[in-house]
Amino acid sequence: MQPKTVSDLKPRETPQLLSLIFPVFNEIQTLPHLREALEQWRTTITPALEIILVDDGSSDGSLKYLEVWAQQDPSVRVLAFSRNFGHQVAVSAGMERASGDAVVILDADLQDPLEVISEMIRRYEEGYEIVYGIRQEREGESVFKRASAWAFYRFMRLMIHKDMPSDTGDFRLVSKACLDVVNAMPEKDRFLRGMFAWTGFAQTGVAYTRHAREHGSSKYPLFKMLRFAGNAVISFSPLPIRCISAAGTLTACFGFFYGIYVIGQWYFIGDTVQGWPSLIVLICLIGGMMLLGLGIVGEYVSRIYESIQQRPNYVIKHTINFDTQP
Q1: DSSP state, 6?
Q2: Long-range contacts for 281-287 (Cβ within 8 Å, ≥24 apart)?
Q3: Which of 53, 105, 212, 326 is the most exposed place for a label (fewest CB within 10 A)?
Q4: Interatomic CA distance for residues 179 and 91, integer angstroms
Q5: What is the value of pTM for the model shown?
Q6: Alpha-carbon distance 210 to 297, whole Å?
Q7: CATH: 3.40.50.970, 3.10.450.50, 3.90.550.10, 2.40.440.10. Which one for 6-237+312-320?
Q8: Kindly report the CA angle at 90 between 183 and 99, in degrees rounded to 5?
Q9: Gap between the Cα atoms of 3 and 76, Å rounded
Q10: Strand partners, 211
């Protein structure tokens, strides 16, 4: 549960082992810079590091680079998927295999600075179970990108969960206690930001400036972001179904009162309404509502269908270094 005051938090010790989870998909241009940044940064922090890199079916040589890196550094663990299963699934796989006292979820593109983790650790020591990064500034992004991101996060908060923070991605530190709860959730279509908010654990944010991507290209263009938002809403909220029910009720009420109006006009005035324009409008309105409702219901049914198949969320091709000490 969220603490009522800061005094309700229970301070804890610095984590002895910190697990960093990086989903990797076609990041061969970024990985050498990520390795260099990690090697420089790890000398400035106290916890030992476990670096988990999940290759999500890369086809550009990223996996080969990760394998060489893991052979040279025992603290680097590599989890290779048989194909691309998606960002959220890749992060979930890393979370399930993390052995640290706390985990930090990051992207491999270095847009989220490693230095922010030190402040996250300090907030973790204060007793917070989740410490997320708040994107106070977004370097190198267009006005449209910033505006669409602003709208996206507020839409997600409205549709998914009121405690889901705005202007945050997956970049966050999570305690072992919270991680165990999220790992136990059996969702097939996973939306981790909503799942973390749902747990109700004490959370706080750390503001930072998100760097521009210097290497490689974004894996989340506008279309993919919209699809991600749609999947998140359908997978995590019954609100679309309720909206369709409300719209159907309003449409039925409108038709009922309009029918009374037509009958009254015929009875008292004797005006026989020709009705072609109004009839076409009503047919289009009701037909469109029915098709939209069927489409949304179909999305929920497809989720149920996928769940009862009980297929695994991912298939592992091989792993490296998960049997070694960091």
Answers
A1: G
A2: 282/255, 282/258, 285/251, 286/251, 286/255
A3: 212
A4: 12
A5: 0.76
A6: 38
A7: 3.90.550.10
A8: 50
A9: 35
A10: none
CA 149 to chain centre: 13
Show me where the domains of the chain are located.
6-237+312-320, 239-309
Q: Please count the CA atoms within 13 angstroms of the CA of 225 that sit on its side-chain side.
A: 16
Structure tokens at 51: 């670096």
CA proximity to 114, closest of 74, 173, 56, 165 = 173
- Structure tokens given for 293: 């409702």
**Closest-CA residue to 241 (of 287, 187, 295):** 295
19: its two tokens? 């697990």
Say which residue the tokens 């691309």 belong to. 84
- pLDDT means over runs of 10, the chain (326 residues): 62 94 95 95 93 95 96 96 94 96 94 94 95 80 68 69 75 96 88 88 92 68 68 71 74 72 70 62 73 77 76 92 79
- The answer to whether residues 3 and 86 touch, using CB atoms and an 8 Å cutoff, is no
Cα(313)–Cα(149) distance, rounded to whole angstroms?
Answer: 28
CA 102 to chain centre: 19
